[in-house]
Structures are given as C-alpha cells and as structure tokens.
Amino acid sequence: MIPLEWYLILSSVLFCVGLYGVLARRNAIAIMMCLELMMTSITINLVAFWRYGNVANLSGQVFAVIVFAVAAAEATVGLALAISIYRNRDTVVANDLNLLKW
Amino acid sequence: MSGSQIAFLIISALTVYSALMVVTGRNLVRSALWLVMTLFMVAAVFTTLDAGFMAVVQIVVYIGAIAILILFAVMLTRKVMNDTEPQTNDNWWMAVIVSVVIFVGMVFMVSGVSLPARPASDVSNQIVDLGNAFVSPNQFILPFEVASVLLIAALIGGIAIAMPREEEG
Asked: Could you tell me the residue range of the domain that residue B164 belongs to?
C-alpha cells in the first residue's frame, strides 16, 4: 500500500521541474513541453485524491479528463502560435519575441 | 516495504529522471522523446492508482496526440536554434530558486495536513460509473459539453492562427 503523500510529493517534484523549465528555457516549444509536464503533474494529484477519498464520487477523474481536454486545446493553440510566429519572424526564441515590449 | 511501494519508487524515479531530461536537454527532438517517456511513466502511476481508464486516456491523448503535435512543431521550426548555444536564459538561477522554494513549500503543506491513510477498497465498475457520470444530466454533462465546445474552438483557432495569409501565397 502506497501512502498518499508519495503521490503528492511525486506530483510536486514534476510540477517544480516543469516550472523551472517554463521559467528558464529559451525556446517557446520547449516551454510548451514543460507546460505539459506541469499539467500532467496536476492530473496525478486529482486521480490520487479520487483514489484515496470517496471512490463513488467520480469528480476527481472527471476533473482529470477535463484537464486532458484543456491540455490538448492549449497545445493546439500554442503550437499554432509558435508556427505562425516562426513563419512571420523566423524565430521561436522567447527572448526575441519582443513585439509587445515597450 | 511492499512490492507495490518498490514498484512505485522505481516508476517515480524514472518519471523524475525523464522529466529532468526534458527540461535540461539541448536537443529538442530528444527532449520531446523524453517527454513521451515521462508521460508513459505517469500512465504507469495511474495504473498503480487503479485508474486504468485514465492511464489509457493518458497514452492516447498525451502521447498519441499532444506529444506528436509537439514533435511536428519541433521539426517545423528546426533551424532556429543550434544545439550548441545555451538553451536557458540568463535568469535560470532565479528559476531554480523559485522552483525549489515552491517545492519546499508544497512538501511543508503536505506534511502539515492529515491525509487519508489508505485507499478505498472497492474500485470495481468505475469505468461504467465514469461513463454514466459524463452523460447523466444531474452529474457532469455540462462540463463535458463545455469541454467539447472548448476543443472545437481550439481546433478552429489553431487552423485560423496557423493558416498562411492570402498575400503571402
């Protein structure tokens, strides 16, 4: 039997690794990958709380499925943006995307 | 220490290692493949939680759709960054500090609350219940439909954003 704390700590490790990547990587697509890492770590939490709480109440799993849908939508729009930016400005480096910087 | 605990520790060590490879890797294609590995290991974590449906959805949606989408985007924007130049910005040490502080805070919070000690014993029939819950009017049909609308909107938005302009040919 695995303690619930282990799942929570695994999920926070994954979340913080993803957070580091989002803050530190230069490539916009690498930032998207790290965002996906953070999203997955959240679903671990949701499913773990469902399993250790009231199993008959399926809100945890339903919430996790919704997070999947949101992650798919976010990846679609984000990568479309990255490709569009690449086509217009020949770069996906986040530092060079300073069109709105004043 | 029981067998399931050892299995969990191995799975989580692989998860964290491949996540670190995603974040630190210089070659973006390799990073994307390590991301696939991470997502696979998270699916294994779901099976240790008796959530088989979630594990399958994780593999189909994340690996089958999102990771492939990311790989395509990496390949379409391949010539931008050399693998030799630094892949992190100048403030990476601040990112390390922020992540470590947030991690310590989360561990502190987890150790502070009293959590349920053992999982519920009976999880049979959960996939049928989940399927019913998604379409039953007094449970989750509204979030389910909102998610479908969101996906359609994202699909159309993705096409509209990535479509080349007319004057560019």
From this structure: 124-169
Residues in chain A: 102
Number of domains chain B contains: 2
ipTM entry? 0.90
The second-level CATH assignment, the architecture, of A4-93 is: Orthogonal Bundle (1.10)
Q: Does B5 touch chain A (CB under 8 A)?
A: yes
CATH code, domain carrying B51: 1.20.120.1200
Q: Residue ranges of the domains in chain A?
A: 4-93
DSSP state of A94: G
Q: Which tens digit of pLDDT belongs to each residue from A18-76? A: 999 999 888 888 898 999 999 999 999 999 988 888 777 888 888 999 999 999 999 99
The model carries a pTM of 0.89
- Note the pLDDT of residue B139: 83
> Greatest CA span in chain A, whole angstroms?
55
Residue that terminates a domain, selected from B81, B115, B137: B81
- Residue matched to tokens 């770590």: A41
- Tell me: pLDDT of B120 over 90: no
Residues 116-145 of B with CB under 8 A from A: 116-120, 122-123, 126, 129-130, 133-134, 139-140, 143-144
Q: Whole-angstrom Cα distance, residue B31 to residue B78?
A: 13
Best CA proximity match to A45, nearest among B115, B9, B120, B20: B115
Confirm whether B100 is domain-assigned. no
- Alpha carbon B11 to its chain centroid, in Å, reads 15
Task: Assess if residue B103 is contained within a domain.
Answer: no
pLDDT value of residue B168: 55
